[in-house]
Description:
This protein has 218 residues and is α/β, with parallel strands linked by helices. The chain contains nine helices and eight strands. The protein starts with a strand and ends with a strand.
Amino acid sequence: xxxxxxxxxxxxxxxxxxxxxxxxxxxxxxxxxxxxxxxxxxxxxxxxxxxxxxxxxxxxxxxxxxxxxxxxxxxxxxxxxxxxxxxxxxxxxxxxxxxxxxxxxxxxxxxxxxxxxxxxxxxxxxxxxxxxxxxxxxxxxxxxxxxxxxxxxxxxxxxxxxxxxxxxxxxxxxxxxxxxxxxxxxxxxxxxxxxxxxxxxxxxxxxxxxxxxxxxxx
Length: 218
């Protein structure tokens, strides 16, 4: 039995759920279109370049959660998953997850996208273990802040080490599937790194390191 870890955005699904959530808020008239759409696009471009200021991004992306009650937010999230996420779930990704499940592996998603967005998406794949940036929730209300270390770049290793301290699993024969060069710290740590529909920087590194490169979109 091994630990099989998956990135979420552009790995298990065919787009970025963080970016799509921001666009959903814009299209639904929940946030100011001109400001939010432009800022959302700029942060996403920074992420693709590997220059994202994760703290500033989280301050931006979590702020709308503090402006609405949790029940309303969860209704919007259900609509978001139905309209924006289910159409980009990848059958080949589900088959890969199921393959590891049948082998008795422990399944995990580890993602920089916050838990509010990702928890229901991960459930679509039947994965119980989710490590993600966690929005602060106090007295039944999201505060717009986040708790602990952002689960981004080397922060993913921090979250995973904390998880391992409380579980019987270890990194022996571990797997990690990701599309992004931002995940190189964790890809270098696991036994079996796999580049999935990788960005150009990760593709170049994977080829030099002789890592497997696969597509889940064909």
